[in-house]
Amino acid sequence: MNTFLLESENDMAYLKLGGQLDYERVTDYIITIRVQNKYNLAAETVVNVAIKDVNDNIPIFKDVAAGTVLEHEPPGAPVMQVRAFDADGTYEFNQVKYELNDHRELFEIDEYTGNITTKITFDREEKDSYVIKVIAMDNAESALLLNGQPNRGQQSFHIIIGDTNDNPPKFTQKNYQAEALENANLNALVTEIRAVDNDTASEVYYSIVDGNPNEQFKMEPNTGKIRVNKNLDYETTTSYNLRVRAFDGIYEDFADVIIKIENVNDERPRFLDFNRNATIPEEELREGCIVKVEAYDPDLPRDVDQHIKYYIVKPELEEFMRIDDTGCLTLIKPLDRDPPNGYEKWQIYINAKDEDGGPNSLHAPTEITIILTDINDNAPYLDMPGPVVWPENKDPGVITKLHANDNDGDNNGPPFHFELDNFAPDVIQKGFRITDDGNSNYQIEAIRRFDREQQKTYFVPIVISDNGIRPMTGTSTLTVVIGDENDNEMKPGHSEIFVYNYKGLSSSVIGRVFVEDEDDWDLPDKTFGWKSSEHRDKFQLDEATGDISVMYNPIYEDVLEGTFDLEFSVWEESRLFERHTVDASVRVVIKKIPEIAIDRSGSIRLANITAEEFIALSKREELQKYIGKLFNISTDNVDVFTAFTTKTGEFLDVRFSAHGSPYYMPEKINGKLAEHQSELEDLIGGKVYMVNIDECLIEKASCESSCMNVLIKHERPQTVRTNRTSFVGVHAEIQTECSCSSPPAENICYNGGTMVGKTCNCPEGYNSGPRCEVIDVGFSGDGYAWYQPLTLCESGRINLQLETGTDNGLVFYVGPLSYSGSPLKVKDFMSLEVSNGFAKLLVDYGTGTSLLEQKEVNIGDGRKHDVEIKWNSKNIELIVDSCTMRTCMSLAAPVGTHEFLNVNGPVQVGGTSKNLGALGSQLGWTYVPTSKGFVGCISNFTFNDHVYNLGEPSYSVSASPGCSRILTQAVTFGIDTNFLVALLVCIAVLLILILAVVVHKRKSDDMYKDHDDIRENIINYEDEGGGEGDMTGYDLNVLRLQHYDGDFKKPHDLLGSRPHDEVPDICGFLDGKKRQVDEENTDEPVDNLRHYAYEGDGNSTGSLSSLASGTDDGDLNFEYLSDFGPRFRKLADMYGEHSSDESEGNYEVPGSESWC
């Protein structure tokens, strides 16, 4: 922008300002002016312009900062210096002076230097800061204001009154009170106290100066928090009076802190001295206290009630004795000193619990020994290991010496006296005798020769007496086995071996060659060999023992299956007869069994029957047929593949599977057999100890808490041998794991899901779990579904969602399915039901039923509700809709002494197959679940986070996976019941009107119908077929005979004339029609030949409708229909003159019911 402008006017040129001038920027200008004529002649001149300064700048403060002055400083104390600058360029305009605009009574400022000083003495506790305004002005009239005054600038400054330690700290109160538990942890906070100090520059420090013996407490110096420093003990000191100090470096203050120690139950009860040994006679029920114990609670003064409860530690002793609250131990049943169930010294452990045995009580044990004096209350018994063997055909002699024992003490025991029972059978008395050598050494002798083939074993009753004060006499049985001698020649024999092939049979002995032989200890005298070479590539024979085993062959080992007839020769030689040979045949049936059959197998545990009896008596085959009949499937679809005696020798375990397509789940098989347990026992002849073998079912028998069953499948088979029948099955047994961990998740996706990485991509259209499980199932009140049982866990949790519009119904039940007097006596169960619209939970650990009800949330309102059930050895919880308030959750303790839920039956959802009322009365449940079925939808059923696949139950009746076909309740849709009834009535009336119109229209059409065109039975079957001819669009003309030259005849004309009672030749009639069709010439392609036996237009066999049509009443004689047989009886009744009802005697059955 040009500062100056040059304007020409005639012969003159004027120099003018083109913009503002600023002296502070440019003080003078040198301007060169050039003039030029038309001849381009020019001249120049220089003009000097000097700028004159004016007062046009306002003083401005620099370095605006806060000032500080300490309190209590005398007047005149410096505070701060302020500085302002004036930008004018000349001295007469840029000299600055200062003055205060406010607080002039407090501060003053030097007008030339800007130094601010105090005029009074300040106290920070009154006011700790000030804001003052300082004015800076220059020394001439302002060129901006034009009011004759100088330019002025103003700035605010913050002045802080500095603090000095001039105030003492003060505690908020002089006396404090606090409480601390005697079992408080170290460093636990007891209380916090504070002292107030008006000075901010001084920091307060806290300390305990007195009343803290042994430094039980410590105090944080900067916060005033008092903490526990050492363990407290109420029984030692009940309170502390601490003297605490607050100090700021100059001043201090004191306060008292009283800390009361709260007594907690941290001391176990202590027993007073007593006589720990008591001596009483055995088998005597003594009145009064055997021993009296007394304990006290160190947490309580001795002169108050100690609230001690006494308990017998071992539950098995509670049937013999009890102890009351006074510590008096009394007998309720006599004690036995003698084995096997008695002890000379009984050790009893007594627990004393304080706080009346409450949940937070502590206990202390003590031991009592009861010494029993002996009485002669046991008869002596024969003490000899196993049976004794006496060879057959041996001359009379001593069989063995006799030894006895007595469970009583030595004073009531030996020496013993033996004699043969006078009531022994004649065969015993004529075969044996007992003799004494005179020194109380007794022996039994054979007094004749024995023949094993006549009798193998003799049970000899021996009477034994002891030497007690009152002698006791007992009878024991000595088993004498007659040893075998090979004195009978063998005969040909036949046996059968059934084998299940599971993962190969290499080198497995499957059975033995059998021959008929009265001798049974003569195997060393026999030699075995092959008679036929057939199947020798598959089986091998041990020539010494006759054992048959499968030969190793990797080609067909795993797939060996079928029936194999093996032929052998057996040689025998004895000192009593010459060497001879017989034939023996063995049929081996091998069936391959897949692994899924074992994984999905059911099982039963039987008592009072051995594996040999189960096989030899064909109980395996009977069980196989029974299961097939129970499930209405072929016996070939049932496999009983395991039968073995348990390790204890007490039970027989049997496993089996069944399949239609696919294999049935074990819950289905076990559940059905459990429902028919009595029939099963009658069939097998043994006692069913357990259905679904569960080694965890008996509490603490295998594990102390959590327990899991694991099916172990051994590759080597299990063999059961009898003489004529042998069974080789799969060795599959249950073993336990003392844990509750879920098995690893299978890398499979259910219901059409696909695996993507480690997760499942599930199809749309239904609610699904992490493995595409269908997570909801619906019921309409008359069904149920079975799922896998619950695992025994130390603590369990079930979560589910339910939606129902009804007030009552069983949501789920898990527990026994039947009761037939099983020695197990396991009656544990759990059930959840909707009762009057609210959730009701029943849980029984086997020693009493706990009832939990939730009365806050109505779950029968048609909405979806969450239900959570938690249980452990101490508590059972029922929570609805995640509500943890006391009003909408229920908490109870298990009833009785059992601690876990032991169940092995299926989880029955939506209802149950059993009448739980009858079952509950048999099992003695305190509360019985309802048997009323559930109406609604159940979803998201999980047990310890394991998602149940509700869409694939093991067995179900009227269950709808996905809740797709549930009977919808009116309340579900919020529809009033009266409105719904009115709506249904309107719909019914409308349907009746529509039906009436349709019937009326059909009758109107029949009035004008051509009677020669019979079409009332034409049906459009949307079946594709007939080759290219199917393009006729279902034209029934293709059904007509193409070349039928004969006259159309009625059916009865084709049968010919006959007497009324003659049986028509139906077979000839049908054969004629068939022959007519076969001989017909047709132009249609072969693949279009069809002859449907439909009545109607073009059908040569006529139409049944013709029975009601025609113009000649003579054609309406249909009496012959009654002679066609039972299949035509209805037609005879409809069109004949006489009824064919057998009660009227007008019908006689002419032979067979068959046409041909």
UniProtKB/TrEMBL annotation:
Laminin G domain: residues covered: 774-963
Domain of life: Eukaryota
One CC-aspect GO term: adherens junction
Major site of localization recorded for this protein: membrane
Membrane topology label: Single-pass type I membrane protein
A single BP term in Gene Ontology: homophilic cell adhesion via plasma membrane adhesion molecules
Molecular function in Gene Ontology: beta-catenin binding; cadherin binding; calcium ion binding
UniProt keyword list: Calcium, Cell adhesion, Disulfide bond, EGF-like domain, Glycoprotein, Membrane, Repeat, Signal, Transmembrane, Transmembrane helix
Compartments (UniProt record): Cell membrane
Keyword Nucleus: no
Cross-referenced SMART domains: CA, LamG
Sequence intervals crossing the membrane: 979-999
Region of interest (Disordered), ranges: 1137-1156
UniProt-listed InterPro entries: Cadherin, Cadherin-like_dom, Cadherin-like_sf, Cadherin_CS, Cadherin_Y-type_LIR, Catenin-bd_sf, ConA-like_dom_sf, Laminin_G
Protein function: Cadherins are calcium-dependent cell adhesion proteins.
Name under which the protein is recorded: DE-cadherin
